[in-house]
Amino acid sequence: DQFIEDILVGRFSAEHVVVGENFNFGFKAQGTPKYLSEVGPKYGFGVSIIKLQEDRGSTISSSRIRNLIIDGEIERANELLTRNFFLKGPVIHGEKRGREIGYPTANIGLTNLATIPADGVYAGWLSVGNFKWQAAISIGTNPTFPGVRGRQVEAYAIDQVGLDLYDQEATIEFGYRLRDTLKFDGLEPLLAQMKKDCDQARDLTSK
């Protein structure tokens, strides 16, 4: 019962737990939904067991959705989630490349446990506090610029000027995948493509 005591009760203070009928937990995955529903009242929470759902002949599961996200198939993942996939984290200081070329971006700090979509450019939304903006989102290593860097998740709030979001908690929602990451021969073709990306993202997120 360590999982129940440490995670469900200790970390989440669970009052009600919803699990799929194939859910397993604990040592060697010996815990079952039936067992959880039996001991739940002892720990002060109720349990609902949900029957498995299928989509296009395959079971909808967290691992299936996670793989779609990792492969960059955001629209399919959103269909199965019945909402937009999102990442949340503090806005951290980056290299400020975007600011230098007229597209200041919010770089999001994420934990190693985050499920990050495939490298590329996406259309979606950036939210901080009570504000929500249409956004062009980039994931990757910015190969056009020299140097070696890790993967970055950054969002440009379309048509917004003068935002100071550093150290604030931000949420990036992913709506559509626009294209793969490209390496450009110079700044001019990069800026031309970024304008196209923003125009497309603006149109898609206005629907």
Share of helix, binned:
25-40%
Order of helices and strands: HEHEEEHHEHEEEEEH
Tally the structural domains.
2
Give the strand order of the largest sheet, numbering strands 1, 2, ... along the chain.
5-6-9-8-7-10
If classified by CATH, what would the architecture of the largest domain be?
A: Beta Barrel
Please report which band the strand proportion falls in: under 5%, 5-15%, 15-25%, 25-35%, 35-45% or over 45%.
25-35%
> At the fourth CATH level, what is the homologous superfamily of the largest domain?
Riboflavin kinase-like
By DSSP, the count of extended strands is: 10
* CATH T-level fold name of the largest domain: Elongation Factor Tu (Ef-tu), domain 3
Radius of gyration: 21 Å
For the record, the CATH class of the largest domain is Mainly Beta
Poorly predicted tracts of residues = none
Instruction: Describe the global form.
Output: elongated
Biggest sheet descriptor: 6 strands, antiparallel, barrel
Distance between the termini: 48 Å
Secondary structure tally, helices:
6
Going by helix content, strand content and strand pairing, the class is alpha+beta
Structure description:
There is one protein chain. It is elongated, with a radius of gyration of 21 Å. The protein has a 6-stranded antiparallel β-barrel. It folds into 2 domains: 51 residues, no CATH class; 122 residues, Elongation Factor Tu (Ef-tu), domain 3, CATH 2.40.30.30. The mean pLDDT is 92. The chain contains 6 helices and 10 strands. 29% of the residues lie in helices and 29% in strands. The longest helix has 18 residues. With 207 residues, the chain is an alpha+beta fold. Strand 3 and strand 4 form a beta hairpin.
